[in-house]
Write a structure and sequence with these properties.
The protein has about 290 residues and is mainly α. It starts with 8 loop residues before the first helix and ends with a helix.
């Protein structure tokens, strides 16, 4: 086997030099691992099948992921196969392990191949891993059948909708763009694409803190308002606590007093309210001036 890019020659050589196991030896190791949990038996069983892991991982090297990671995920699948293997079923371990190795690598590819995730159903997985091969095969037919709908043919072969094929093809053909990449194509400037995704909304702890502070200030104000007379309270509410804000002259007309008298009552009420608020919480004295 030629060296695979990304895996050291020594690792590949060690895997290739591992001795093949006879059916009897493999069966004995599997029973020993299952019945006694002998780590040595597991090591022999898995080491002898690392060449299988490398061979399967190599089939997925065109997805742009490090081959070392593919091999590592394949090894995880190999260990899972060893944990689940029943030596009494008269099936060679390599046959059983192949499915687990491939499934583990496929899941890794689907999780990491793109920031735009593909589907997770079995049909969507089949579409992801077979799209290129099916397209090439059907494209050859299209040379003799100009009206052939390639997308529809692929959808029928895999068992998905035509729209799913179009969407998956767009995902596979469009490269991911880093949020750290500069906005301008020539790389000039310091702004990156990620700068335009910053959330200017308050953080959750800030929202909670503001809510607690607002409730506390409301309670202080309601308590302080109890020191005012009925007329003082009415003047403050209509002058300071309403959206419109009544004028001195209009409020004086309602109360039958001059606007100057309204101003005097308002100032006195504000002073009483300030003292009441400070008595509720001395720390707000500095904020009130």
């Amino acid at each position: 086997m030629a060296q695979i890019s990304g895996i050291s020659r020594s690792f590949v050589k060690a895997a290739m030099d591992a001795p093949f196991l006879s059916r009897e030896h493999e069966h004995a190791l599997a029973i020993q691992w299952r019945d006694t949990g002998d780590q040595g038996a597991l090591d022999q069983l898995t080491t002898a099948h690392m060449r299988l892991v490398i061979a399967i991982a190599a089939r997925f090297r065109n997805y742009g992921l490090p081959v070392q990671d593919l091999v590592q995920e394949g090894h995880v699948g190999l260990l899972e196969a060893a944990a689940r293997f029943d030596p009494e079923r008269e099936v060679r371990f390599s046959t059983y392990a192949t499915w687990w190795i491939r499934a583990s690598i496929q899941d890794f590819v689907l999780r990491n191949w793109s920031i735009v995730r593909g589907g997770t159903s079995s049909a969507q997985k089949a579409l992801f891993f077979n799209l290129r091969r099916l397209r090439m095969r059907i494209a050859r037919r299209a040379e003799d059948e100009p009206d052939l709908d390639i997308h529809a043919e692929i959808a029928t072969a895999v068992g998905v909708r035509r729209e799913d094929v179009v969407t998956m093809e767009a995902r596979l053909s469009g490269p991911d763009t880093s949020l750290d990449a500069p906005v301008s194509d020539d790389g000039s400037g310091s702004a990156s694409r990620g700068d335009f995704f910053k959330d200017t909304a308050p953080l959750p702890d800030e929202i909670v803190g503001d809510s607690i502070d607002s409730e506390r200030r409301y309670e202080w104000l309601q308590s302080a308002l109890t020191v005012l007379s009925e007329r003082e309270l009415r003047i403050l509410r209509e002058r300071r606590l309403s959206e419109e804000g009544e004028t001195l002259e209009a409020l004086g007309t309602k109360l039958g007093i001059s606007k100057e008298r309204v101003r005097q009552i308002e100032n006195r009420a504000l002073e009483k309210l300030k003292k009441a608020l400070i008595s509720c919480n001395p720390r707000i004295a500095s904020a009130m001036g």
